[in-house]
Structure formats: structure tokens, C-alpha cells
What we know:
Layout: E1 4-9, H1 15-26, E2 32-37, H2 43-47, E3 58-63, E4 67-73, H3 76-88, H4 91-99, H5 102-109, H6 111-127, E5 139-143, H7 147-163, H8 167-180, E6 185-191, H9 195-210, E7 215-223, H10 230-237, H11 242-251, H12 262-292, E8 298-302, H13 310-322
Parallel strand pairs: 1-5, 1-6, 2-4, 2-5, 6-7, 7-8
Antiparallel strand pairs: 3-4
Amino acid sequence: MSRLQVVSGKGGTGKTTVAAALALALASRGRRTLLVEVEGRQGIAQVFETEPLPYEERKIAAAPGGGEVYALAIDPELALLDYLQMFYKLGGAGRALKKLGAIDFATTIAPGLRDVLLTGKACEAVRRKDKKGRYAYDHVVMDAPPTGRVTRFLNVNDEVAGLARVGPIHHQAQAVMGVLKSPQTEVHLVTLLEEMPVQETVDGIAELRGAGLPVGRVAVNMVRPALLGDAALRTALASPSHTAVAKALSAAGLGGSRRGGKAERLVDPLLEQAGEYAERHTLERAQRSVLTGLGLPLHELPLLTEGMDLAGVYELSALLREQGVGATA
């Protein structure tokens, strides 16, 4: 897989959890992965049940086969100080500006600058090498903004490169876009089998492609288990007769056959639940068909009935590996 894995999705689809599971999957077999947060929510710390992340790369998990997952919560103000030092050698002056509030003012008044700093820091981690010429990380996974904002977020350096025709800002913006629009990068979208998230995924893919950004995979999260076979689904959708269901329940030993008995009382709630399930299953099947029609690799991750915790993240990571993620370096 590509070295920079960008994960986006509509709010509520579990994109941070999927990004964490992806980082673990990619770090298997002795590899090193950096998981980057850019929204300031400390969502990664919550997923890994650890203290809030500082502005430094810190090991937060061990992956199967001796791999390691590091995490970084990018702070735009500190990233700007890094930028000033890197390109203008203004380390001391930059710190003085921070004390005066100028750094906070700059990153607040110019949202585009904030996105430039965030994407630039992530791409620097992708390009970084050690003294032996080896990449510091095999993969960098970015927990990116939601689908509706991700294209503009990733494409902001294209706009900056066009505005600043010369100088270090222009060259930095070009270098970042050189990573983001190259085979080194894939943008993955997380969705649910629901109409609004699926439509946002379809629209998001069209926007990403229109901007020349590389689309990777679609992860369908929180997939409910199949409870009824096709024949039972057809029966539920056909509104079976009350009497027939009551007789079937009686035959199965669930209450006597007399009128008003236990079997009779079970019929209405069972029919209601079966009808709701069949209707939802039909809608989910239609949304799955839409996603399949996109022609992208599709991964399905189950709804974990006991809730999401760190053990659940490892479980999702294992499922991603079973589906071929992280199989090759």
C-alpha cells in the first residue's frame, strides 16, 4: 500500500477508529506506522485509551509481529514555529512572536495557512529518512477532516503554490502536493450502509478525483450481522399471516396453541421486528450496491456489540489484515 494513508468519512462513521485499526494493520510484521491527528480533538488518545497526545511523535501501541504504532497530534501554532525555523531560521524570533500572540493570530485569521501547516507536517514525516537513508516510518496514516472538507484540506497547497510563485513557501507547497498527488498517497473514505453517508462518500470521491487526488478504498463500518436468510427475508417482507406464525411458534414449543396463549402474544412483536429488519436489510443491500458500483476496493467492518474499546480496535485491525490490508510492505 502507499506510504501516506489519508482516512476521511462523514461524522459519526467512526473514521478515527478505522484510521487507528488501519495503522495497526499496516504496522504488522515489524513495520513502523505513524498515526497523525490534524483536528485537535485528541480522538487518537481516546481510541488508544492513553493520555492526551503532545506535539511530538510518541509510541502508543505494539502491533502483531513486532510492529510499532507512533502517534502525533499536530498543533498548528507549533508547526508554524517549526516552519519559521526550517525556512527562515527564526527560532528565537518565532518564539517571541508566539508570546506576543502573533502565531495564534496567524493560524486563526488564515484557515488556509493552518491547513498548509497540517498537511506539510504529515508529508514531512512521509519523506523523512534516517542517517542510513531508510524511511523513518513505513507508513503514515492521517486521521483527516470529514468528507465534506477533505478535498479542500488536501488541495490547499495547490492554491498556495499558485499564489506564491517563488520562494520557500512556493517550493514547500509544491513539495507537499508532490506527495499528496503521487502514488505515495491514497485517500480512503469511511461510511455506513446508510443513505446520507453513502451519498457523501460518492460525492467525496468525485471531488477528490476532480482535484487530481488519489482515491484508495472504501471502508464500510459498523455492519450489522445477517440474522435472516433470503427465504426468511422474503417471508418477512410479504407480511405473513398472524395465524400461520402462531402455529409455527406453537409447533416449535413456544407456547400452547390455545387462543390468547403465549404463542399468540409473541406474534405481533415478532412480526414487527422481522418487518423492520427486512426493510433495513433491503436498504442496506441497496447502499452496498451503490458502493460496489464505485469500482473501488471495499472493506466491511462489523458493529461490535460490546462497544468500541482498545480490544475492539485490535479486532478491527485483524479483520483488515484478513482482507489484505498490510499484506505487503
